[in-house]
Specification:
By secondary structure, the protein is α/β, with parallel strands linked by helices. It contains 14 helices and eight strands. The chain is globular. The structure holds zinc ion. The site of zinc ion has 6 residues, from α6 and α10.
Length: 396
């Protein structure tokens, strides 16, 4: 028997998760439990999706909560977006009973988390000073506004995490505001809201969730509860993603992907991630590669790079997910697992090479140098900048 590491961990999750087809109709009563005035941030697609926003605003109003539409966002949030929207919220006079309501995918939810923090914290006018690794390294002194989220994509799982990812292009960085108090109090996940998500976004966001499940499972910071959730998430997502892409109206496929994405958020929020998520933000700020596509292109190589140092864990996944017999040759089982993941990437039309995403050879040194965030610190295998450059060149 090998010596187990001591069983000692923290686990955080939203206070309340409300999951189910059609359950967006409960948003009014849930909002009433958070306060009297909701600052609403939504993704642009939500606005267009068959009157979803009007339906939700009406549900909130009927419970005596005033909805104030404060921002719409159609791309990953930037420092200026947070600063501008937070100033707008503060100009309304923040008082007890105010809360944030985010309707959308990762962009809307992360923007709302950061605005919730900045609305009540004014040691600096810019969120940059609160981000990890840049600015003045300020901590939140005041309690952020409470928040509820309604997720309209199945991907980032950010409804269940305690960080908000904020970008800047000049200077280029993509960093987190991290504080357990910005996690949504209520995460309302209605898979029916994802039915209108177009194919390409279904594929990219689904691959993001799958990457988060794999990376958290083998992370250096892996924890037992998230590992159990990751197995369940992968069991749900691997057979469902292709179906969700092929037939967006499939209720079962959409439910499975929403559930897998939610679980992936709890996994990454507690166990951290690895090199795919280390490189993804760098691809975002240097080459404008969207997060999901960046994860998809990096997942197979991240598994290969870590195959030897996480052979037992990956062989276990090969057995649980694909029925591989791992008793004879665990190494072979891991190779089969990676081949299955590659096949899945092809099936859903995920990019396989960095050049497919507009990345050029000249950009690789800058991408490697910008990949050293908190995600990379969870990668099982320690990689030098030179090793990382070589790995990226091999998939150019
Ligand atoms: Zn991700």
């Amino acid at each position: 028997m090998t010596t187990a590491s001591p069983l000692s961990y923290d686990f955080v999750a939203p206070r309340q998760i409300v999951f189910g087809w059609g359950r967006r109709r409960e948003v009014g009563a849930l909002a009433r439990g958070l306060g009297r005035r909701a600052f609403v941030i939504c993704g642009s697609r939500t606005l267009l999706a068959g009157g979803a926003l009007d339906e939700i605003s009406e549900a909130i109003r009927s419970e005596g909560v005033e909805p104030v539409r404060i921002a719409t966002i159609s791309r990953e949030p930037e420092v200026d977006d947070v600063d501008r929207v937070a100033a707008l919220v503060r100009s309304q006079g923040v008082s007890p009973g105010d809360f944030m309501l985010a309707l959308g995918g990762g962009a809307a939810i992360d923007l709302a988390k950061a605005v919730a923090a900045m609305a009540t914290n004014d040691q600096s006018p810019t969120v940059e000073d609160y981000l990890e690794g840049v600015g003045r390294g300020l901590k939140l002194a005041q309690e952020p506004l409470p928040m509820a989220s309604m997720t309209t994509t199945a991907g980032t799982g950010c409804e269940a995490t305690r960080n908000a990812v904020i970008s800047s292009y000049d200077p280029p960085f993509k960093k987190s505001l991290r504080d357990h108090r910005i996690m949504p109090r209520i995460a309302l996940v209605d898979p029916e809201l994802t039915v209108s998500v177009p194919r390409a976004i279904t594929a990219a966001s689904g691959m993001d969730a799958i990457t988060q499940l794999f990376e958290s499972f083998i992370s250096r910071k892996a924890q037992p509860i998230p590992q159990a959730l990751a197995i369940e998430g992968l069991r749900l997502a691997l057979p469902a993603i292709a179906e969700a892409v092929r037939d967006g109206s499939s209720r079962e496929a959409r439910e499975r992907m929403s559930q897998a994405a939610l679980l992936s958020g709890m996994c990454l929020g507690n166990s951290g991630l690895g090199m795919a998520h280390g490189v993804a933000p760098a691809l975002g700020v240097h080459c404008r590669v969207p997060h999901g596509a960046a994860c998809a292109v990096m997942l197979p190589v991240a598994l290969r790079v870590n195959a030897r140092v996480r052979q037992a864990e990956l062989a276990r996944l090969a057995h649980l997910l694909f029925g591989e017999d791992t008793s004879a040759d665990p190494q072979e089982a891991v190779q089969t697992l990676i081949a299955q993941v590659e096949k899945l990437c092809d099936t859903v039309g995920a990019p396989r090479r960095l050049s497919d995403l507009g990345v050029t050879r000249e950009k690789i040194p800058a991408i490697a140098a910008s990949s050293r965030g908190s995600s990379m610190s969870g990668n099982p295998r320690e990689l030098s900048d030179e090793e990382l450059r070589q790995i990226l060149e091999e998939i150019l």
